[in-house]
Design goal:
Blueprint lengths: L2 H4 L3 H7 L6 E5 L2 E5 L7 E4 L9 H5 L16 E5 L5 H9 L3 E6 L2 H10 L9 E5 L2 H4 L9 E6 L14 H10 E11 L6 H12 L4 E4 L7 E6 L7 H15 L3 H7 E3 L2
Parallel strand pairs: 4-5, 4-7, 5-6, 7-8
Antiparallel strand pairs: 1-2, 2-3, 8-10, 9-10, 9-11
Helix pairs in contact: 7-8, 9-10
Length: 261
Amino acid sequence: MSKKDSAKSPSERNEQQELPEVNFSDYGEARFLHLGTEWVQGSMLRDAPYDIELEYVQRMMAGLLFLDAESVAKKHAMQLGLGAAALTKFCYKKLRMKTTAIEINPQVVTACRIWFKLPRDDARLRVIEADAAVEIQNPAHHGTVDLLHVDLYDHEAAAPVLDDADFYAHCRELLTEDGVMTVNLFGRDSSYEQSLVKMAEAFGPESIWAFRPTREGNTVVLAQREPTRPERAELLARAGVIESRWDLPAKKWLRLFSPAL
């Protein structure tokens, strides 16, 4: 998608390109979300619907390494792209955070509520049906987000839908002083190095951290609003807390996670 297209409203974009059909499939213990193709847009363990099943989605929670565990329940998480709502549900149910998700396709929202156990909105949970490129420019969101998760792919999963320096600059504006953004980079046509350059332009090179790619080709990149470089012992201590409190493989993350630039 071009920069020009990203500035258009949801209705204008939808007039040009019909939103894909949403469906799901079950395989073993997991349920998968699809947008009219075989590409997996998200998943859920049917017996543990509020856990995170996919490895790369677990890594999207690496921002917890830069937050005080005692304060997490008082923080605000935001997801750009709902997928199967794994991150939204985890932040809301497990972390007890105020949680906001922005999703352009109303069918995805309905599917998550019917098939993927996404709770209804309440005082801590809000799902906004909107174009993320436009919605994040709303000043009401600026400076309010502590954990920002960006996972924006179309039904072809070829490249991120939004991936330019202006978009990442708007993402940075969302964050609190200690806020962290994680982005899933995956796709046949995407360029990892070019995406890093765009993020570094918006956040500064010292703010960028990255995981090694998963077997499936997902590379999770993290950007801090204000760069810090904690000592490894401090990160290990935080990882231990994350594992004990929320059952995420945070110590394993540290073997695969380092400053990117």
